[in-house]
Specification:
With 349 residues, this protein is an all-alpha fold. Helices cover 79% and strands 3% of the residues. The chain contains 13 helices and two strands. Strands 1-2 form a two-stranded antiparallel sheet. A hairpin with a 4-residue loop joins strand 1 and strand 2. The termini are far apart.
């Protein structure tokens, strides 16, 4: 019971730190926005100056470009430079909050805990741990907590990448209605007609701004390749190639090219839906079948061995822990594979 009180204190410490962050956030938001815009401009300028030495320039700004490319597609309201600064500040704040909260909690926590039988006799506590020896666990826990926003962003990026391959079909359909306009106007009009849940709405606005404000061909091509690379399909590359060609030669043949691309995507989508319908049972089995088998197996063993014996064998033996990790890893891998198969990208392959 005493351990539960320590967990409650940890939660309250985190709540206090979160409240302080909400108080400080409005004061630093404006300065962070200005700094983010200046930093993004400086990074783009350095990248353009070093484009003849690509490998050297990429090494210097690799981390910034990596986060920027992920947020470009993963964040609904992406803003160049500002989104990266906001993400880094949030990650640093989460690290500091968890570290301080865990450290303050450990100051009140006994230094030694002995387990004779945790399911029958509970936990016995010894004397408190000196603060000089208590920094390793908070550092480890805060490091894990600070990695959560990044992995959450990677997961969101992967999900939106697949969804973007289907949303591109709507972009092409709408764009074909405005082929009498310039390329930047086509993209701007298309973005206005897209629904709010379309993941390409913000990237398309940024691409339209790049077509209307680019200073050289390298800058325009880099932004166009960024858009197609975020979607990651052959159809996206074809769409961007048509836009770049029309920027040079005019939009005379753009409508026919977009209509052909639209037909190809429609045919491929029908093929994907047909294949998916035929393998729906196998995909569902991969998503939920293993979990059902695990729950039923665990329930059977607990009934046969009694809960106290089962938990002792499962969590207090090396073999039990090893098998538990293997089972959890297998469930995770099967879930990821089944999720990918449940909705593959809308591409030629």
């Amino acid at each position: 019971m005493e351990l539960v009180f320590y967990m409650i204190r940890l939660a309250l410490h985190l709540l206090v730190v979160f409240g302080l962050w909400l108080m400080v956030k409005p004061l630093i938001e404006r300065h962070m926005r200005q700094f983010g815009q200046k930093f993004d401009l400086r990074m783009n300028l350095r990248r353009s100056l070093l484009r003849k030495k690509v490998s050297r320039g990429d090494k210097r700004i690799w981390l910034y470009r990596h986060l920027d490319d992920l947020l470009y597609f993963a964040h609904r309201r992406y803003e160049p430079g500002i989104s990266v600064m906001r993400f880094l500040l949030m990650t640093a704040g989460l690290f500091a909050a968890v570290f301080l909260s865990t450290l303050l909690t450990l100051r009140e926590l006994p230094g030694h805990m002995s387990f004779s039988n945790p399911f029958l006799e509970g936990v016995s506590f010894g004397e408190r741990m000196p603060i000089q020896e208590a920094w390793r666990l908070p550092l480890f826990v805060s490091g894990l907590a600070a990695s959560i926003p990044y992995w959450r962003m990677r997961y969101t990026y992967a999900q939106r990448k697949v969804r973007g391959s289907y949303d591109l079909l709507d972009v092409i359909k709408i764009s074909s209605k405005f082929t009498h306009l310039s390329v930047d106007s086509i993209l701007s009009k298309t973005a206005d007609f897209l629904t709010e849940d379309n993941v390409l709405k913000t990237p398309l606005r940024l691409l339209g701004a790049a077509f209307s404000n680019y200073s050289n061909e390298y800058e325009l091509k880099a932004e166009a390749m960024r858009f197609s690379g975020a979607i990651g399909t052959t159809f996206a590359i074809e769409f961007v190639s048509d836009l770049l060609y029309c920027e040079k030669e005019g939009t005379r043949y753009l409508k026919s090219s977009l209509m052909m691309l639209n037909r190809s995507m429609e045919q491929q989508r029908e093929t994907i839906l047909t294949v998916k319908a035929g393998s729906r049972d196998a995909i569902s089995l991969g998503l939920y079948g293993n979990l059902v088998v695990l729950v039923s197996s665990v329930g059977t063993f607990m009934y046969m061995l009694k809960p106290d014996v089962y938990f002792k064998l499962q969590f207090q033996t090396k073999v039990g822990l090893a098998f538990l990790m293997v089972i959890i890893s297998g469930l995770f891998v099967s879930f990821i594979i089944s999720t990918i198969l449940a909705r593959p990208k809308l591409d030629y392959h």
